[in-house]
């Protein structure tokens, strides 16, 4: 776990704001590796925050592979509906909303009815 993950994992707030560029270490949220890292960070704080707000301010590249990997990681323990209810993007662009929607649909399809999550 990175120092950032450790620091935010101890934050006892009902709403937690995280910046994607801080989690992935730069302005690139384009690949599955960054998405998996982002998913692990979200999982680390999942039970400590009622709601999680995500900002992509400072991110220059963002792709579907990033969101798919993050959703796949979270969907190991949580249904997609819970993920969408808990996570909100601060000032999202239409492109970001479309990418999240696509990743959620792909992950829901992979989970199947009644699957996903024990959270």
Q: How would you summarize the topology of this molecule?
A:
Layout: H1 3-9, E1 15-19, H2 20-24, E2 28-29, H3 32-45, E3 51-55, E4 61-62, H4 64-74, H5 80-86, E5 87-89, H6 94-111
Parallel strand pairs: 1-3, 2-4, 3-5
Helix pairs in contact: 3-4, 4-6
Cα-atom radius of gyration: 13 Å
Silhouette = globular
Count of the separate structural domains:
1
Let me know the average pLDDT: 89
In the sheet with the most strands, the strands line up as: 1-3-5
Characteristics:
two-stranded parallel ribbon, globular, alpha/beta, about 120 residues, 5 strands, about 50% helix, about 15% strand, 6 helices, 3-stranded parallel sheet
Q: Could you explain how this protein is built, in words?
A:
It is a single chain. The chain has 119 residues and is an alpha/beta fold. The protein has one domain (14-111). 52% of the residues lie in helices and 14% in strands. The strands form two sheets. A three-stranded parallel β-sheet has the order 1-3-5. The longest helix is centred in the C-terminal third of the chain and has 18 residues, at 94-111.
Task: Explain briefly what this protein structure is.
By secondary structure, the protein is of the alpha/beta class. Helix content is 52%, strand content 14%.
């Amino acid at each position: 776990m990175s120092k950032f993950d450790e620091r935010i994992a101890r934050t006892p707030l009902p709403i937690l704001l995280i910046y994607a560029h801080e989690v992935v270490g730069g302005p690139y949220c384009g690949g599955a590796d960054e998405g998996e890292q982002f998913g692990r960070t979200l999982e680390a704080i999942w039970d400590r925050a009622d709601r999680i707000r995500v900002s992509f301010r400072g991110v220059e590249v963002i792709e579907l592979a990033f969101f798919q990997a993050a959703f796949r990681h979270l969907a190991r323990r949580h249904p997609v509906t819970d993920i969408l209810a808990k996570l909100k993007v601060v000032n999202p662009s239409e492109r970001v909303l479309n990418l999240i929607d696509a990743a959620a649909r792909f992950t829901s399809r992979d989970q199947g009815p009644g699957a996903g999550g024990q959270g």
